[in-house]
């Protein structure tokens, strides 16, 4: 890739939109996950009696909360992939078409 094409891509409004949207959305999902993970760790550290509550047999609230965090992280990943496969791919195709003059 030459400098002219790089400059054309960086000047493309679709490229700026892609970078802005992807960065903001990625940070939003990361912050959601970090807040929930640290909340779980805070419960373990400061009020372990909540985690130790037995739900059934030897299964405790902590196991459900931990499994919930894992499921939530998979769900957030799926949300990001769905966005990437639709909005971000559309922007990428527009950027490529604009930079090369070839519609894909």
Helices and strands in order, then pairings?
Elements: H1 3-11, H2 13-46, H3 48-51, E1 54-56, E2 59-60, H4 61-100
Antiparallel strand pairs: 1-2
Helix pairs in contact: 1-4, 2-4
Task: Please report the total strand number as a whole number.
Answer: 2
Poorly predicted sequence stretches spanning 5 or more consecutive residues:
none
Proportion of residues in extended strands? under 5%
Q: What is the overall silhouette?
A: elongated
Distance between the termini: 18 Å
Helix content range:
over 70%
Order of helices and strands: HHHEEH
Number of domains: 1
Mean pLDDT: 92
Radius of gyration (CA) equals 21 Å
Describe this structure in words.
With 104 residues, this protein is mainly α. It has one domain (3-100). 84% of the residues lie in helices and 5% in strands. The chain contains four helices and two strands; from the N terminus they run H-H-H-E-E-H. It has helices at residues 3-11, 13-46, 48-51, 61-100; strands at residues 54-56, 59-60. A two-stranded antiparallel sheet has the order 1-2. The protein is elongated. It starts with a helix and ends with a helix.
What's the quick description here?
It is built from four helices and two strands.
Task: Jot down its keywords.
104 residues; two-stranded antiparallel ribbon; 84% helix; 5% strand; elongated
């Amino acid at each position: 890739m030459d400098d002219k094409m790089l400059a054309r891509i960086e000047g493309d409004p679709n490229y700026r939109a892609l970078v802005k949207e992807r960065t903001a959305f990625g940070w939003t999902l990361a912050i959601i996950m970090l807040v929930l993970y640290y909340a779980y760790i805070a419960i373990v550290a400061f009020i372990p009696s909540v985690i130790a509550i037995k739900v059934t047999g030897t299964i405790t609230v902590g196991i459900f909360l931990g499994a919930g965090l894992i499921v939530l992280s998979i769900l957030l990943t799926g949300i990001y992939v769905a966005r990437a496969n639709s909005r971000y791919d559309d922007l990428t195709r527009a950027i490529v078409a604009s930079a090369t003059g070839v519609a894909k």
